[in-house]
Amino acid sequence: MTPQDLQKFDHLLSEEEALVRKDLEEVAVKDPASGGFQPKPADYEGDVREDDIAREATTTETNTAIEQELKHHLEAILEAKEKVKNGTYGVCEKCGEDISMERLTELPMSPFCIKHAE
Known about the structure:
Mean pLDDT: 83
Number of domains: 1
Number of strands: 2
Order of helices and strands: HEEHH
Structural class: mainly alpha
Helix content: 55-70%
Strand content: 5-15%
């Protein structure tokens, strides 16, 4: 992989990281203690009715699921960016072969070649 390719993928990963962080801010709040994120809790404004509690509980559960998926996605992006820095980006973690440019273009944080993706 050329230095230009690495720069291109680092840029793609940075753009993806910004999008994921923005999405995380919509469903989670920063946890100052850990530096990570916690799902946004239900917001019970004013009078609380039974249907409001059910709706807010569903919202909290949805935020939790989305937050977990986004955190996982962010971790994969950060790991890929670290690989760009240390020169191991684009190499399959299972077989050590190069990951195809097509696969990296579609999924720049992929740690595996198409053969070992599952």
